[in-house]
Amino acid sequence: MDLHQLYVFSKVVEHKSFSKAAEDIFLSQSTVSSHIQALEKMLGIKLFDRVGRESILTPSGERLYQWALKLLLMKDQALLDLKQGMTELRGMIRIAASSVPGQFMLPKMVNQFRRHYPDVMFHINQSSSKAVAEKVLNGSVDIGILGEKYEDDRLRYIPLLKEKLVLITSNEVDLSGTVSFQDILQFPFLMRTSDSGTNSMLERYLKKNNIAKDQLNIISYIEDGQSLIQFVMQDIGISIISEIAAKEYVCKKMLKMHNLEGFNDERYFYLVYNINKTQSIVSKLFIESASDLI
Question: What DSSP character marks residue 177?
Fold first, then answer.
């Protein structure tokens, strides 16, 4: 059995698409199709059903996928055993990260990891916390880093860093010290989208204190955290964001940051992985060392 064909097969399974798999592994779509057809012919079974735009595994394909993951992992382990030094490890780690860890934690983590394993490559995708969890569940990434837990028996979370949320305003806004919730009602408010961990934490705070969200003068919902900060800097509105994200701008005197009265909730940023996904050697190393990379 051709291990390269199994590798191509595993990528089609992960992406549920021949074209996306081809793009991921830098092959033409026709080459990917040829590999799958050759594998089907050799085994005498059909591996995929076409459902809409997605390529869905047949029952035989499901069984082969589990074996393929084991065989590809054994190949990685064999190569590792033959290496003279761990620094020669190669491979790709696919990570999905929500906005704050993606911008303010992951670059440091990657830098630290590559000092030990310089030949490892990374494919980084930035999404909302909810989308990160979904990508980990469907196997399109190896690892997720996010600021909100989504309970599922297949997901394992490793706490990385604890932080809190703070109020940010432009330098033009005249507020000082700790700010009460009533103080912020007079200002236009910028809100993160509902899939973000920041928004989930804020909504829990409002619910816990019996505060209706429509009391806030919300003028915009913004998906990207960096864009939201730019809006605040332009004095379009105020917002509540991660303290980690705010500190960098406050140190450069580009924003003001305030603690919120009674808002003492803290959250963790987590590394999350799918226990049902067979991880490569390099992905396992990243997971095991993640807490030391911060």
Answer: S
Strands 217-222 and 48-51: unpaired
Q: How far is CA 141 from the centre of its chain?
A: 8
Give the Cα separation of 177 and 165 in Å (integer): 15
- Taking only the tens place, the pLDDT of each residue in 124-176 is 999 888 999 999 999 999 999 998 899 999 999 999 999 888 999 999 998 88
Give start and end residues of each alpha helix (H) in the chain.
3-15, 18-24, 29-43, 59-82, 99-104, 106-116, 129-138, 181-184, 197-208, 225-233, 243-251, 281-293
Q: What are phi and psi of 240, to 5 degrees?
A: -120, 120
Mean pLDDT score of the chain, rounded to an integer?
89
Q: How far apart are CA 168 and CA 241, in angstroms?
A: 7
* 154: phi then psi, degrees, rounded to nearest 5: -85, -10
- Which helix (H) or strand (E) element contains residue 266? strand 266-274
d(CA 268, CA 266): 7
**What CA–CA distance (Å, rounded) separates 251 from 259?**
16
First to last CA, the chain: 41
